[in-house]
Specification:
Elements: E1 2-7, H1 13-24, E2 27-30, H2 31-41, H3 46-53, H4 58-70, E3 76-79, H5 83-86, E4 91-96, H6 99-108, H7 119-141, E5 153-156, H8 162-177
Parallel strand pairs: 1-3, 1-4, 2-3, 4-5
Helix pairs in contact: 1-8, 2-4, 3-7, 6-7
Length: 179
Amino acid sequence: MIITISGVPGAGKTTVGKILAKKLGYEFFSMGDIRGRIAKERGLDINQLNKIGEKEDWTDRETDEYQKKLGKRNNIVVESRLAYHFIPHSVKIFLEVDPKTGAERVMKTERDDERYESIEETMEALEKRMESDRKRYKKYYGIDFPDKSKFDLVIDTTDKTPEQVVNIILDFIKNKYSS
């Protein structure tokens, strides 16, 4: 089985993905981490990389091709906004969150490329990132992100712990995919 986790910034995609993979004994892959590495190698932050990506597709191509290769594997969890598209046979999960809660969570993370002074600044930066993502995905793939109708399960994580979200996913998989 392949499980793909998409969603908005601060919804808990990476945290949930890591916990889920560990509980299932699966390998975890984060496309956000790969894109962060690509940005860092070029002396950019993720927002600068995304802005370039609005005009040049190389900023997404490496991770997109990697996701297609991952789709040939089994027993993995992939965290990525577009993994559901590149691995269409996966169990597709979408995590959403209230924008303020998402911003608060992002402020607590230890990512080098995301340092903000206030919740308001964080919310604004995350909205700009989502708008950049929408532009790129529409331009290069004709995808309207986030079209939640493309997902098997949508979870609002606003008032849930990562463990609660993982349990919802595990229950869903057990009920839908167990014989």
